[in-house]
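General statements about sequence and structure are easier to judge against a single worked case. For one protein, we set the task of working out the structure tokens from the amino acid sequence alone. This step matters because it turns folding into a mapping between discrete strings. The amino acid sequence and the backbone structure tokens for this protein are reproduced below.
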Amino acid sequence: ALKSWWPRPQAWKLSGLNTGYWSSDAEQWYQRHLEKIRSGEATIMTNNEWRPAIKFNKEAA
């Protein structure tokens, strides 16, 4: 399976961060995730792993 540091387009599309424009919430998530990558805390994930990892954003919206 293809793995990525970032959610694939389909996973992003289904997340609550997909509001049709780049929101301040999306920017905050991006900056936090980028810092996790830089610090070695992030893991490379498949699309199936990304979906639940960013799904909470939709429920919180």
